[in-house]
Fold this protein.
Amino acid sequence: MASKSFSFAFLLLFFLCTFAAAEPCDNHRFRGGKTFASCIDLPSLNCSLHWNFHSLTQTVDVALRRNRVDQKTRWMSWAINPHSKGMVGSLALVAFQKDDGTMVAYTSPITSYATQLQKGDLSFPVNGVSSILEGNEMIMFATLALPANTTTVNHLWQEGPLVGNVPRMHPLSGPNMGSMETLDFLAGKLVVDKTSSRNQWKIVHGILCTLGWGLAGGIIGVLLWLGALGARIGGGINQYIGITLLGLGAIQGIVGYCRPHKEDKKRVYFNIFHCSFGYGAIGLSIANVFLGFHM
C-alpha cells in the first residue's frame, strides 16, 4: 500500500512539474498588475512575447520573457528589422544582469555581424525600457512607437554569453540560428512564411543534386575504367561530355559550400554562376543522352 501511494505521489509530482515547465504564455501573471492582451510562445530559446497594441497611437507595449536558464551569465534581446528578416539592420532591445547583480536594459541598432550590442538610439521612439529577474525568468519591458500603418513586423529574439558585462556572440548553430519570424501585432498571431516551403524545396534540391551527381560520377568512373581496359563503350565526344558533367558537379558542390549569406552583396554573382552552371549541366546532359542513341 505504501509503495502504491509513493508511486502515485511520484507520478503526480512528475505531471505537475511537466505542466509547470510547459506553462503556456497566456497563463502567466505579471507582478505589479501588468496585463497584456496578446502573447505567443516563441518556438526556440525558451522565450515568450507578450504585447498590447494601441491602434490609435500606433504604439505597442511588449514584454519578452526567457526562462529555465542561468541568467547571470547570459544576455537576451528582442528586435524588429524594418527592412528584411536578417540580423543586420535590426533594431534591438537588450537586457542582462551585471556582475554586481543590477539589471540593465537598453536599445541597440545592429549594423554588422560583429556587433557587441552597444547602446544606441533606434529609428523609432522607444520608452520604458527596463528588465527584471523573477525566479529563473528574465523579463524585459518596453513601449515602441511603430511607423504609421505598420502592424506586421519582422522580429528576432536572441541570447548569448556575457563576459565582463559585455555581450558576446551568440552560438552559430541550433535554435539560435532560427529565432526569427513575422508577427502581426493587430491580429495577435504569427504570419505564415511562404518561403518556408521554398526552403524545403531547397533541401530536396540539394539532396537530389547530391544523389544525381553521385550516381553520375559512379557511372562515369566505371566507363572510364572500362575504357582504360580497352572495352569498346563508345568514347569520343560522349565520354568527354560525361567527364565535363562530373567536373561541373564537383564545382557546384564546392561553390555551394562557400555560398555567401543571402544578405551579402556578392550573393547575386553566386546566383548567376550557380544557375548558369546548373542549366548548362542540364543542357549537356540532354545532349549527351541523344548522342548516346547514335553510338
User: Anything to note?
Assistant: The CA atoms of residues 260 and 267 lie 5 Å apart. The chain has two domains: 23-192, 196-293.
